[in-house]
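Researcher: Last one for today. Full complex below.
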Amino acid sequence: MKLLFANPNTSEQITERIRTVAEAAAAPGTKIVAVTAKAGVQYIATRAEAVIGATSALELLAEHSSGCDAAVIAAFGDPGLGGARELTTIPVIGLAEAGLMAAQMLGRRYSIVSFSSKLGPWYRECVEYHGLLGRLVSIRLLETPFNDVTAVQSEKESLLVGLCEAAAGDGADVVVLAGAPLAGLAQKIADRLSIPVIDCVHAAVHLAEALARMKVKLKRIPPKVPVNLSPALTNFFRGDGST
Amino acid sequence: MKLLFANPNTSEQITERIRTVAEAAAAPGTKIVAVTAKAGVQYIATRAEAVIGATSALELLAEHSSGCDAAVIAAFGDPGLGGARELTTIPVIGLAEAGLMAAQMLGRRYSIVSFSSKLGPWYRECVEYHGLLGRLVSIRLLETPFNDVTAVQSEKESLLVGLCEAAAGDGADVVVLAGAPLAGLAQKIADRLSIPVIDCVHAAVHLAEALARMKVKLKRIPPKVPVNLSPALTNFFRGDGST
Amino acid sequence: MKLLFANPNTSEQITERIRTVAEAAAAPGTKIVAVTAKAGVQYIATRAEAVIGATSALELLAEHSSGCDAAVIAAFGDPGLGGARELTTIPVIGLAEAGLMAAQMLGRRYSIVSFSSKLGPWYRECVEYHGLLGRLVSIRLLETPFNDVTAVQSEKESLLVGLCEAAAGDGADVVVLAGAPLAGLAQKIADRLSIPVIDCVHAAVHLAEALARMKVKLKRIPPKVPVNLSPALTNFFRGDGST
Amino acid sequence: MKLLFANPNTSEQITERIRTVAEAAAAPGTKIVAVTAKAGVQYIATRAEAVIGATSALELLAEHSSGCDAAVIAAFGDPGLGGARELTTIPVIGLAEAGLMAAQMLGRRYSIVSFSSKLGPWYRECVEYHGLLGRLVSIRLLETPFNDVTAVQSEKESLLVGLCEAAAGDGADVVVLAGAPLAGLAQKIADRLSIPVIDCVHAAVHLAEALARMKVKLKRIPPKVPVNLSPALTNFFRGDGST
Amino acid sequence: MKLLFANPNTSEQITERIRTVAEAAAAPGTKIVAVTAKAGVQYIATRAEAVIGATSALELLAEHSSGCDAAVIAAFGDPGLGGARELTTIPVIGLAEAGLMAAQMLGRRYSIVSFSSKLGPWYRECVEYHGLLGRLVSIRLLETPFNDVTAVQSEKESLLVGLCEAAAGDGADVVVLAGAPLAGLAQKIADRLSIPVIDCVHAAVHLAEALARMKVKLKRIPPKVPVNLSPALTNFFRGDGST
Amino acid sequence: MKLLFANPNTSEQITERIRTVAEAAAAPGTKIVAVTAKAGVQYIATRAEAVIGATSALELLAEHSSGCDAAVIAAFGDPGLGGARELTTIPVIGLAEAGLMAAQMLGRRYSIVSFSSKLGPWYRECVEYHGLLGRLVSIRLLETPFNDVTAVQSEKESLLVGLCEAAAGDGADVVVLAGAPLAGLAQKIADRLSIPVIDCVHAAVHLAEALARMKVKLKRIPPKVPVNLSPALTNFFRGDGST
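Model: Here's the assembly. Have a good evening.
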C-alpha cells in the first residue's frame, strides 16, 4: 500500500518528521510518500495561511496522488480537505480529522493540546467544520513563545505534559496532540499522563490504511476546465489520469 | 491480530454472517472471534431490547476479550459501548460507530439505510449519542415486512438499492447500510449506486485493526466489586485479568 | 395512588432514604413502593455500572410495577429509562429527569450539584440524553473523598452549600441536588442559598403523581419473546400481565 | 390548593373552556381561578399579539395571583412567562411548557398539532425558547379555515385526528394538542390514535399542582418602581403584597 | 432619510445620549427621531421589565414610525422586536441585533461587555433569540455597583477597558459594548484595545440606513382588531395608516 | 467611498452584472471597483472550486483593496472570507454573508433559492460556516439544466418565482436569491412573491457601505513572509502597504 502525506506547509523539516513518524507506525508493506508545499508559509497558523495551504494541498494531490491508495492532508486544520475529497477517488483524510476521529473512537470527550496560542481560532474552526464540537472539552495551548517549531516538542515537553493533565482536569478522557510538529511526542509522554494521548500522524497512517482497505467505490465531481492553474491542477480538475 | 466481534443479539446466524464478512475483509493475519449473546432477543430493534443487549455485550467482552487486540460491539446501535470502553484497555468500537465514522471520513453528509421502519428511533438515538447528528441527512427504512431477518438483504435487495438512491436525492454523498443483517450487501450493490456505500462490518474490521495498531495506552475505571453478576462480569468489574 | 421507586443500585440504605423522603413528600393517599436492585453495584457512578443498572431497573419494573400508577427509576442518570418507557403503559420517569424538568419549570438556567467528581461524565451524558444541555450552566461536584455515601449529605453539608452558591455565581438561577444520597438535603439548606434548590426525590414524587393523574393512554412496543432472561423480565417483554 | 389560569387572550369563551377542562382534571380540593385579559386580541396567533399578551399576563398575575399556590399562563406560546417567573414566588408555568414537558416525560420525540397554519412560526419559536427543539419532530397544522375558534375542536375533529396520525408517521411517539381552544379534545380522540396524545390544560393542572406541592423556595427579582403602569402592575414590580 | 430610535426605557437622558451619538454617526441627510417610553422602568435589566418594554416599543412605533424609513428598538435586548417586524413594512432592527450583526461581519467570534452583572441572563437570552450563540465567546459584566446609569461609561471607563481585554483573552476577536448607556464609549477606548470594539448605536444607525436603502418590499401580518389598547396601538394592529 | 467587489470566478460577464447592479444600488458618491479572478473556474459550484476561488479572492484583495473603504467577496459561498478578514483593516464581507445577514434583519426564518442543484452542498456549508443554520428553513434549487449561467435569471425566471413561493410554503418569511448570476432579479419579481426577497448584491453594497461608515478600528494578523506566492499576495501577507 502507498500513502501520500501532503504537507501544505513549506517546511521540509516538518515533512521529514511526518515521514519518520509515519514510517515507524505504518504496517509492513505500507510505503509513505511525504511531499512538501512549494508555496505558502513555514507553518500554517491562521485562516489566511490555510487559504494558501488549501490550494497547495490540492496541488500536491494533483501531482503525487496517482498510484497512491489513500492520501493525508498533513497539517492540523486540514486545509483543502473538502475540495480534495471531491477531486479524487482514493480516500483523503486530514491530520486533524484523523486525530479527532481516533479520539472519538477511543474516548468520549476529548481535548486538544498544542504549542501556540495563535493556533486556537483556526483549530476550533476545524473541529467545528468536522461537526465534532459537541464532544470537545477544551483546547489547551502553550502561552509562552518557543524557539524553533521543528524542535518545540522537546523544548516544551514538560509544559505540554502539564497541558494534557490540565485537559484531564477539564473533563477530557482523551487528549489529541495537535499539529505535525508534535508528531512522535505522544508515545514519549503517554506513561506520564492520566488519560490516553493520541498522535495525529499515527492516527492518520492507520486510519488511511483502514479506509484504503475498505475499498469503498468513491466518486469524484464531474470534470471541469479551469483556467490559469498549474498543469497538474488543471488535469486534476479535468479528471485526466485521475486517481 | 485478534478481533472480537461481540454480537449482543442471540441469533447465531447473524453472528455467522458477521464472521464470514469480517474474515473476508480482514487483513492477512487478523483472526476474527465472533460470539453470540446467550440472553436477549434475536434482533435488537428497540431501546428496551438494547438495555438487555448492553449487558450481553459486557458479558461477552468479559468472557472473550482476553487476548484480543480490539473488540467490536457487533450490532448497529452499539449497546453497551460507553460502558465497555470503561472496563477494558483494548479499543472497543460499535458497529454503528464504525459505519458512521467511515462515512464522515469518506464523505461530507451521510444517510443511513436499513431494513425495518421499527429501527428508526433507536438508530437515530444512536447517531445522537455519537454526537454526529449535524452531518446526518436522513434515515431511510424499508416500510414493508420481510420474511427472515437473516435473508432480508437478498429478499429486499432492489428496494434497498432504491432507498440508497433516495438518500442521494436527500442530499447525502455517502450512505451507510445499517445493521448486521445487511453485512456484505454493500459490495454487491455499489456499482448500481450514484453515491458510495459503506458496509459496517468492513468498516468495523478495518477501524478496529487501525485502533489496535495505534497502540494508544488506554485506561480503565477503577475496580469495583459488584454483586450477583456472572463470574466473568464480576471479574470484569473487579479488574481481574482485565484486558 | 401507588408509585414504584425502583432503585437500580444495590444499596438498601439508599432505598430506605428514598422511601423516607418520598413518603414525607407524597400526597395523602399516595403509597410508595421502594425496591432495590438485586445485582450490580452499591452506587452507580459510571457508564459501565449504568449498563448493569439499566437491566436491574427493567427487572424491578417487571417484578413490581403491576398495580402501580407510575414508576420512578430512582438513580440520577436514569439507567434504562428509554427502555422502561417502551415496555409499560404506566408513566415512568427518571430521578434525574424529574429534577431537571422541575428546574426547567421553576427557573431558566440550572446547575447540578453532587458529591463526587467521578459522577461528572455520567451526569453530563444524562443531561445530553434528555436534550436539555442548552439550559445547563454547570455541574459542580465535591472534589474531596467522603466516608460513607449514605451519610455524605450530612458529612459534607457545608461544602455542598458552597457548591450551590458557586453554581449561582456561574449564572444558574436554580440548582438541582443530584443523586439519591442527597435526598432530603434541599429542604435543610434552602434558607442558606441565594437560588432555589431542587430535591430530585420530591420532584419525582410530585411529577410521577402528576403524570399518573393525567391518565394519558400510553402504548407499549409489540410483545417479543426473549431468551434466557428471568421469568419476570421475559414476561415483561412478552407483554404478559403487562401494566 | 388554588391555581390561577391567566388567559392572555380576551376571549371569555376560551377562558370558560379552560376553566371547565381544568376543573374536571384537578385533584379534589384544587380550586381553579380562571381570568381573562382585558386588553389585546381574541386569540394570540403572532409575535406582535404575543407582545400585548405578555403584558396582559403580567397584569392578570399582578391582580389575581395573591393567595394562589401556582399560576398558569393559559395560552400556548406562554407570553410573558420569563417575566412572570421573575416577579412572583409561586410557581408559574406556561400552557405550552406544560404540554411539552409532559410530552418529554411520556415519550421520546414529539409533534405539535394545532388548528391554524398561522400559528406555526409563533409555536416553533416557543419550543425554541424552552430549549426543546432537539426532540421536536414536526408541527402539523390545519390548512383550511374554520368558522369559530371556540368550536374548532368539534368542527375539525376528524382532520385533527388525521394530523395526529401524520405526526406519528413523521416519527413522533407522542403528540401535543396545542392551544386552549383544543382543551378537552385529547380524551375524546385518544382511542383513535396510534400514539399518546396530550391535553395541555390537563398537563398544566397537574404540573402546577406538582410544582406547588414541591414547596421549593422561589426568589423574585429585587423590587423596582415603574412609571405609568396600572396600580396592580406597579405593585407587582414594587414587590408590594407580592405572592 | 428618517430613522426612528424607539427607546423602550423611560429615561429621557438615555434617549438624549442615543440621539447625540446617532446624529454624530448618521450619514448627511439622515434625520434621527428619538423617542422615549412613557411607561415602564428607567433601565430594562430583566425579562419582566422587557415584557413591559416590548409593549412600549410597539406603542412608540405605532405613534412615531409613520414617515420614517427604518426604526431601531433602542435598548440592548431588543424588546418587542419580533412583534414590531410583523406590524410594519419599514425595516426594524434591535440595538443588540445591530451590534451582534456588526460583530459577526467584522470578526469571527465575539464577546459582549456591559456595566452590570444583573444584565447577564437577559443579554444571553437575547443572543439566543437571534440564533447567534454559536459564535458568542463570553459575556463580561462589571461586578461593582455604579452611581448613575447615565454616567456609568465615564465612571467605569477603565474597568470597562479591562473587561474588553478580558474578552480578548477569552478568545473573542471583536467585542460589543452593550446597552444604550455605553453609546459613544467605543470610539474613546478603541485605541487602548487589542481587538476591535463595536458601538451598538453606530451599528444601528448604519445598518438601519443600509436596510432602508435596500428597499426590500416587506409585508405585514393581516390586520386584526384588538380591544382596550391605546388608539395608536389599535391602529397599528388594524393596519390603519400603517407604515 | 470606494467598494471593491472581488469576483473569485473567472467570468467577466458575471463581474459586469455585479458591477451594473452594484452601481445602480450604491449611494451617491460610492464608487464600485469590480475585478475578476485570473485563475480558476467560470462559476464556483463545489468545494474544490472554492479552494481555488479562495486564493483568487486573496489575490484580488492584495492587488486592488488599497484605497478601498470596504471589500466584498463577490460569490455566494464567500471563498476565502475568513482569511481575507485577517489580512486587511478594511471591512470585508461575503456575498452570501450579506444576503443572509439582511435576511436575518428583515425576517425571522429564511430560505435560499438558486439556479442549480449542484450548488446545494456548498451553499449549505456556507450557511453552517456563518453559524446561521438555526434560522435556515430550506434551500430550494432548480433541478433542470440551463443554457447559459449569465442569462439564467431571465431564462428561468418563472421557475425561480416558483421556488421562492415553495420556500414560503416551507415556512420561510424571507428568501435570499443566491449567486451573482441572479443579481438584479429580486426587484423584478418582488411584486409576484408573498414574502420579501433579497438581492445579495444590493445587500452587499449597502452593508459594506454601513460597515465602512462605522469606522471600527480593525486589526490584521502579524506580518509573515510566505514563499512562492505572487508579489501582490506576498506583500499582503507581509503587511506591506496593507490597507
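Chain D has ten helices and eight strands. The first strand of chain D starts at residue 2 and ends at 7.
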